[in-house]
Write a structure and sequence with these properties.
76 residues; Ribosomal_bS18_CS
């Protein structure tokens, strides 16, 4: 991947694959906050660097945490 303005770009590594995480729990709010913007939107995998499998799990965990009111739907 060569970019004319910035030089070589390094591919992002999925944090969950690197940690060999078994599951992503919706109760781990501190970990999930890294994947949500300050406005409450879920960050896409091209920005966070997570793989497709873990991105789906992160999305499910964030939505479950919102239902149980551990994470807000939007910023106030």
């Amino acid at each position: 991947m060569m970019d004319k303005k910035r030089g070589m770009r390094r591919k992002k590594v999925c944090q969950f694959c690197a940690d060999k995480a078994e599951t992503i729990d919706y109760k781990e709010v501190d970990k999930l906050r890294k994947y949500v913007t300050d406005r409450g939107k879920i960050l896409p995998k091209r920005i966070t660097g997570t793989c497709a499998i873990h991105q789906r799990e992160v999305t499910k965990a964030i939505k479950r945490a919102r239902i149980v009111a551990l994470l807000p739907y939007t910023a106030d």
